[in-house]
Automatic annotation (TrEMBL):
Record key words, sorted: Membrane, Transmembrane, Transmembrane helix
Transmembrane segments annotated in the record for this chain: 7-25, 45-69, 81-100, 106-129
Protein name as catalogued: Uncharacterized protein
Domain of life: Bacteria
Length: 137
């Protein structure tokens, strides 16, 4: 089961980042002075960051989800990585989305997602080290 939810979540989250990209692109249809004001706004900067980070985190969910389905990592590592990947996306780029939409306090929660993403990388390294040791035995 670990991994499948990440693939599904990753595709769904990717659709939201595509929608955000279309929204950002639609802003270029504004008159030049309105476009200039939009480009200078902090909301634009946050939504642009949410778009970029959301794409990366959705693709990470898909790729690592497929890896979790392919390799027999220890069950606790696979479950923890699966959960932390979703937490990372929601609390990192998801909070950037909310900040860009005017929810000011959401930005304070973004480090939770960044820390979760670092933990995923550490756990994946640990999981593959154990996988290689088990394969040698």
């Amino acid at each position: 089961m670990s991994g499948k939810i990440n693939v599904v979540f990753g595709f769904a989250y990717f659709v939201t980042t595509l929608a955000l990209g279309m929204y950002l692109a639609s802003k270029f249809q504004q008159p030049p002075e309105a476009l200039q004001a939009w480009m200078q706004s902090p909301h634009h900067a946050m939504l642009k960051a949410a778009h970029v980070h959301g794409n990366m985190e959705s693709l990470l969910n898909i790729v690592i989800g497929l890896v979790l389905m392919k390799f027999a990592l220890k069950a606790w590592i696979a479950r923890t990585v699966s959960l932390l990947l979703i937490v990372a996306a929601i609390f990192h780029s998801g909070m950037l989305y909310l900040t860009g939409l005017g929810v000011g306090g959401a930005a304070a929660l973004t480090p939770i997602g960044a820390i979760a993403l670092i933990a995923v990388m550490v756990l994946m390294a640990l999981g593959f080290a154990q996988y290689r040791n088990d394969a040698k035995a």
